[in-house]
Write a structure and sequence with these properties.
The protein is of the alpha+beta class. It has 1 helix and 3 strands; from the N terminus they run βββα. It has one domain.
Length: 63
Amino acid sequence: MLAFATHDVRIIAEKREKPPVEGWACWELTGTALLECSCGHTDGPMVTRLAPLMARLHISAHA
């Protein structure tokens, strides 16, 4: 019997800290993202808008 890895891909948008405003922590998105798959594959950094396509390509390549 063969065992196949489940491909559950997470897209992690990168953010950076900005100076606090009135005591509140502030963040902004950098426009880049990382991919992490449950099979151990990682990819990035890449443009955030490209990340969903790369995730689908990774899953379809191993289907």
